[in-house]
Automatic annotation (TrEMBL):
A GO cellular component annotation in the UniProt record: plasma membrane
The protein's name: GPH family glycoside/pentoside/hexuronide:cation symporter
CDD domains reported for this sequence: MFS_MelB_like (cd17332)
Gene3D superfamilies given in the database record: MFS general substrate transporter like domains
Subcellular locations according to the entry: Cell membrane
Coiled-coil annotated residue ranges, if any: none
Family note: Belongs to the sodium:galactoside symporter (TC 2.A.2) family.
InterPro entries associated with the record: MFS_2, MFS_dom, MFS_trans_sf, Na/Gal_symport_CS
Length: 460
């Protein structure tokens, strides 16, 4: 049988058990809610509730993200090499997920003041969260290549992840601002929010690990140990992975700007409440979830690369449309824009993630080595580095253009230079990065046909 693009489809494997698909997808639910609560709102918490200067807040956040990035391939390498009755991945996921929930709550118990004590406390908490988050996410992202070799089956598996990740985003992006709208963007309000999210996430981690306990596991072939840094160097020399990595860096720079800037943009440019911010983000997340059948269809009928290009173009257009947004804009138009961005984001997120296990399989067929953790570690590492750079540049830009922080969430009137900087950070900057991401993924050539041909060759 041939696809509409003229490529021969391989014989499809039976579907994975629902418990495996649901268990793996569900793993993204607690981590998305925790990461967003420790990311999107944390910079504004530091500047507008604790009174930390914008440039210092961005620097602290970026140091933690850089550590996160450095630790990613190390933990990936370690998870490739251990062996337990639960396999290589689940012990890391259980430990990292539970620690992340505990550290989130601790982060929002910041001391009242202190030129050194307050920044030092925040940095330590962010470093701890980054480490525990990595302990979960790297082994988690290594699993798809181990549990199925089906090209379209991986897309379906990733769709479970996108839906569950979106549900976590409901909590971290939607429910969290609404809780702040109810309890106030104060120290106490933020702590209550963190406790609720941590409790929900803890349940999610436990259920995910339980459902995955009987998931299929790829046999680890006998292979000579390869030094850690040589593994990293050889991985990035694989052309499909190199172009996917570059595209991922640029895409996550886009997300770093849009997600970090949006709570500031709605507060100071649109001048709407955190409750309305939550409504906007819930609308965007709902559209992301509901878009999955469409993008799965696109992946099957065109391919993942072309689908990503379509979704990214739509996302860039949505970002640019914020240029004309102001306080007079009807909320219906604002919500329609959020739905458009969510629909497009569903495609960029799903299809970029679905390409990763294909690259892992490609590497195995070419080199005869299973090192899914190393690839996942590099993949998450570039996400974290891009996030660190984006957040740092955003915070430094706010400081350079005169942004005035505050205490206990009280709105402070901003100079026009800061308002203009916010508008550029939400529109022009992400549109440029997403366009560059499209150029990069245009060079990614790995397809279903190529993998099918490799599978037909004698095994190593």
């Amino acid at each position: 049988m041939k696809t509409p693009m003229g490529e021969r489809e391989p014989a499809e494997e039976p579907l994975l058990p629902l418990s495996t698909r649901l268990g793996w997808g569900l793993g993204s639910f607690p981590m998305a809610s925790l990461n967003l609560a420790a990311g999107t709102l944390l910079v504004r918490y530091m500047t507008d509730t604790l009174g930390v200067a914008a440039a210092l807040a961005a620097t602290l956040f970026s140091v933690a993200k850089i550590w996160d990035a450095v630790s990613d391939p190390i933990i990936g390498h370690m998870s490739d090499r251990i062996n337990t009755p639960w396999g290589r991945r689940l012990p890391w996921m259980l430990t990292g997920g539970l620690l992340s929930a505990v550290v989130l709550v601790a982060t929002y118990t910041a001391p009242v003041s202190g030129d050194i004590l307050l920044p030092g406390f925040l940095l330590i908490m962010m470093l701890l969260f980054a480490t525990s988050y990595t302990m979960f996410m790297i082994p988690y992202m290594a699993m798809p290549a181990e549990i199925t070799s089906s090209y379209n089956g991986r897309s379906q598996l990733m769709s479970f992840r996108v839906v569950c990740n979106s549900a976590g985003s409901f909590i971290g992006l939607g429910l969290a601002p609404m809780m702040l709208g109810l309890w106030g963007a104060t120290r106490a309000g933020h702590l209550k929010m963190a406790m609720v999210i941590a409790a929900i996430a803890t349940i999610g981690v436990l259920v995910s690990v339980y459902l995955l306990r009987k998931a299929p596991r790829a046999a680890r072939p006998a292979q000579a140990p390869m030094p850690f840094f040589r593994q990293l160097a050889s991985a990035v020399q694989i052309p499909p992975f190199a172009w996917l990595l570059l595209s991922k860096v640029l895409y996550f720079l886009t997300l770093a700007f849009t997600l970090t800037a949006m709570p500031y943009f709605t507060k100071h440019v649109l001048r709407i409440s955190d409750a309305w911010l939550g409504t906007m983000l819930i609308s965007q997340t709902a559209a992301l979830m509901l878009s999955q059948p469409f993008w799965l269809w696109i992946a099957r009928t065109l391919d993942k690369r072309r689908g990503y290009l379509m979704a990214a173009a739509l996302y860039g257009a949505g970002c640019l449309s914020y240029w004309i947004a102001d306080t007079a804009e009807p909320m219906a138009i604002t919500l329609a824009r959020c739905i458009m961005l969510g629909f497009a984001g569903g495609g960029t997120f799903l299809l970029s993630q679905a390409m990763l296990p294909d690259v892992m399989e490609y590497d195995y067929h070419i080199n005869g080595v299973r090192r899914e953790g190393t690839f996942a570690g590099l993949f998450i590492m570039v996400e974290q580095l891009a996030g660190a750079l984006g957040i740092a540049f955003f915070g430094w830009s706010l400081g350079a253009f005169g942004y005035a922080g505050g205490f206990e969430g009280v709105r402070v009137d901003q100079p026009q230079s800061a308002i203009d900087a916010l508008r550029v950070c939400v529109t022009i900057v992400p549109a440029v990065f997403i366009a560059l991401s499209m150029l990069s993924i245009g060079r990614y050539k790995l397809s279903n046909r190529m993998l099918d041909e490799l599978r037909a060759k004698p095994a190593h």
